[in-house]
Amino acid sequence: MKKILIANRGEIAVRIIRACQELGLRTVAICSTADRNSLHVKIADESVCIGPAKSADSYLSIPRIMSACEVSGADAIHPGYGFLSESARFAEICERCDVSFIGPSSNQIRLLGDKIQARTLAQKARVPLLPGSSSSVSTIKDALKIAQDIGYPVIIKASAGGGGRGMKIVKDSSSLEPLFYIAQQEAQKFFGNSTVYIEKYCVNPKHVEVQLLSDGSTFLQLGERDCSIQRKNQKLIEESPCPIFTEKLREKIGSYATALAREVGYTSLGTVEFLLDEDMSLYFMEVNTRVQVEHPVTESVTGIDIVKEQIRVALGEKLSVKQSDIKLQGHAIECRINAEDPDTFAPCPGTITYYHEPGGPGVRVDSFLYQGYNVPTYYDSLLAKVICYGKDRTEALSRMKRVLKEFKIEGIKTNIPLHQRILETPEFLSGKASIRFLDQSRPEKKN
């Protein structure tokens, strides 16, 4: 492997390009016409424009990406996150074309991407599951029977879903039928697969995930991340370690994650996600077979560049670390900075008229912005990630408060004021906030 094409855009494309360059590998950026002036295009060794702004005609077009790979002579593809990063078909086409896909095998992506199959694998690995259907649910008669058996409230989920789509909470039997059909319709619309299943609904859980790293023979867990600060199932703030975890719980969740990885012979980078109920019970949720947006907090507390490790594994190398090397030290918090109104959450694309990144000890900013850059309307609103590290949570939090004041992005609105309000709330400060926190109560704006 000598040249890697990055099949993505924005901050993650910049992050991957920098890792490749430090490993001495040449990089190829792809872009749509809307991204010709994006930072990832400017810093890559080469770039190929693959189509118009619409994602379906550019970043989601496998034929165009493979053509760019052939034209540039790239012998590997890194998919980043989002877009085609969890497409088993894309990984399979790379395998057939003798192009290294920097991620797990197409078979592993297919197995773990189907949430019903993932539940079955988790059960085999003795990972705790929420009560629910053991297979797909296709009729309302079956749905009513399962819901009655496990007890309301329940949640209907798309087997191929994610991001809250194809997901419906059912509080009683009278509302199950209409919500069941809506969930099926949404699953078909967004994922091309109407298959759904049913689980017991956790009312106020925390969302905690474990970072996996494997070369196929060594299976490492790099500690947990608390991702409970979310809005409509979209994460906003992540931190590591989880502020309410005990060492016993940390060992338990890590052992569950590695047991599942061994069950499928997992190779590459991945994340096993769990719900932590109010009684401190853990339940398997899903596996993400790619690099996560929030990976920098794990890098901060472990000192491991996990993107480089992922690339080295794809090169056929063994992991450079073992489980005994991994010690969580200090605390890290990440805030996702989005181009959106902090009060209405409306998207706010436009031109950056002034840009100043914060700095100082323990501060990291992953971004693709620069002064004069025009934020396009076509893609995800994520602009930057601010990561603050400290010797403990108190120091990391005080740094983040300073950094958010120092970070200046003018010309568009961002959600920085929302982050500042969240960091002052008792729920966040206690570390006990659940995934319902932002949906149930919006932090007050100070006059």
Query: Can you list the strand order of the major beta sheet?
Result: 13-12-9-10-11-14-19-17
Overall, the morphology is globular
The name of the CATH architecture of the largest domain is 2-Layer Sandwich
Q: Gap between N and C termini, in Å?
A: 56 Å
Category by helix and strand content: alpha+beta
Number of helices: 15
> What is the fold-level CATH name, i.e. the topology of the largest domain?
D-amino Acid Aminotransferase, Chain A, domain 1
What is the CA-atom radius of gyration, in angstroms?
21 Å
Average pLDDT: 95
CATH superfamily of the largest domain: ATP-grasp fold, B domain
Helix content: 25-40%
Number of domains: 3
User: Regions with pLDDT < 50 over 5+ consecutive residues?
Assistant: none
- Write down how many β-strands occur, each being a DSSP E stretch of 2 or more residues: 20
